[in-house]
Design brief:
The chain has about 375 residues and is mostly beta strands. It has two domains: about 190 residues, no CATH class; about 180 residues, no CATH class. The chain has two helices and 30 strands. A 13-stranded mixed barrel has the order 1-18-20-21-22-23-24-25-26-27-28-29-30. Strands 3, 4, 5, 6, 7, 11, 12, 15 and 16 form a nine-stranded mixed beta sheet that branches. Strands 8-9-10-13-14 form a five-stranded antiparallel beta sheet, with no helix packed on it. It is elongated.
């Protein structure tokens, strides 16, 4: 994010916020008014997730889709994903407005609109899902998934992403009920059928192909990106109803103080809620929650111990955890904070589970003349 200020930014960021508590819902005049939510992230709760791996194609190795069929999603919202051999991914979504929103967030991931034809029987004990769409290169993808058994909770839980999008995202995926694909399943690209490998093969008793069907699929993602913002308003005081307002192109984004209790502050934006506290005159971020656009009761949350403070020299290392709803500490690790000659660098370094260790999230904040550049990459140490 590049944030332009009319004031001297060094003073804006690093000056001390001299605050005195003067009531339960107002804090005294703010000297700098600086506040920023530094991470690119999103959270979605989907009703279904389907996936097939295949062999023999010159570019692709997997097709998957997340499906939302509930209230307010008519026709169903479908996000299809093609995975290349180099583990990069391309999103194809059947909702133009959602594609625009994702592109405005500054994500580096390829995302396109496409019409997706669908047919399914989700009421069967062994559900079936069929999808058909064209890529940006006019390739026709035909996805036909038959399940090998009834989906059960035993095969749900936290999902390892493998190497998919390892240089652009840290995904936290949680499945409700899952099962494998049956050997009736198929994947065709431009009319050519590609082989789906076996996952489990016990002759006579059970055969499961390398493909999945899931009911209730929750996904929170921290992703790489960069975005230009202009700060056009800061609160004159920290009080309920006061706002930070940022502008990016024609879009404005507000962060409003919705609650103050003693030194505890709650700040909200669209699909985001930040819990903070005042520590020695500084705003310390305790939790950042990203809400599902489909159900605001569901959330993907970041927690920091001790609180994350951008200003004066504070703890250089703190613990962090990533949670989805009541499934707490799904990913845990440490956050390193380092002051540099021209700003600050944050590194989220996952420790558990093991697969997350290669997906270090680096957020670099550089301060220049009347601007801040915040750039997020994934995979770098």
């Amino acid at each position: 994010m590049r944030i332009h200020f009319k004031k001297n930014l060094a003073k804006v960021i690093f000056s001390i916020l001299l605050l005195l508590i003067i009531g339960n819902n107002t804090l005294a005049t703010v000297r700098s008014g600086f506040f920023v939510q530094p991470f690119f992230a999103l959270f979605e709760d989907h009703d279904y997730h389907v996936m097939l791996f295949f062999e023999g194609h010159k570019e692709y190795e997997a097709v998957e889709a997340m499906i939302k069929t509930g209230s307010g999603t008519e026709p169903p919202l479908i996000r299809a994903i093609l995975t290349r051999h180099d583990q990069t991914q391309i999103d194809y979504i059947n909702n133009k407005e959602l594609v625009k929103q994702l592109q405005k967030r500054g994500a580096s991931r390829e995302t396109y609109y496409t019409d997706i034809q669908y047919d399914w029987d989700l009421e069967k004990s062994r559900p079936e899902v069929f999808l058909r769409f064209r890529t940006i290169n006019e390739e026709l993808v035909e996805f036909n998934l038959y399940t090998a058994a009834k989906p059960v909770k035993k095969y749900g839980g936290l999902t390892e992403p493998g190497g998919h999008a390892k240089d652009s995202a840290l995904p936290v995926m949680y499945r409700g009920k899952s099962t494998l694909a049956s050997k009736k399943s198929s994947i065709l690209i431009d009319g050519i059928s590609y082989k789906i490998p076996y996952m489990v093969r016990v002759p006579i008793f059970f055969t499961g192909m390398k493909g999945y069907y899931t009911e209730e699929f929750l996904i929170g993602v921290i992703f790489a990106g960069e975005k230009d913002l202009r700060l056009i308003k800061t609160p004159p005081v920290l009080a309920e109803g006061e706002k930070w307002i940022y502008k990016s192109g024609d879009e404005e984004k507000e962060y409003m103080i919705t609650e103050i209790q003693n030194n505890e502050i709650k700040i909200a934006s669209k699909n985001e809620v930040i819990k903070a506290e005042m520590i020695d005159g500084e705003i310390g971020i305790k939790e950042i929650a990203f809400l599902s656009p489909f159900n605001q009761e569901r959330l993907f949350s970041f927690n920091f111990t001790p609180s994350l403070i951008f200003g004066k020299e504070t703890a250089k290392e703190m613990e962090f955890s990533l949670s989805i709803d009541d499934n707490t500490s799904l990913v845990t690790g440490v956050l390193h904070k380092e002051k540099t000659a021209d700003g600050i660098v944050l590194r989220l370094i996952p420790k558990e589970p093991g697969w997350a260790q290669e997906r270090v999230v680096k957020t670099e904040i550089k301060i220049g003349d009347n601007e801040i550049l915040i750039m997020t990459t994934v995979g770098e140490v």
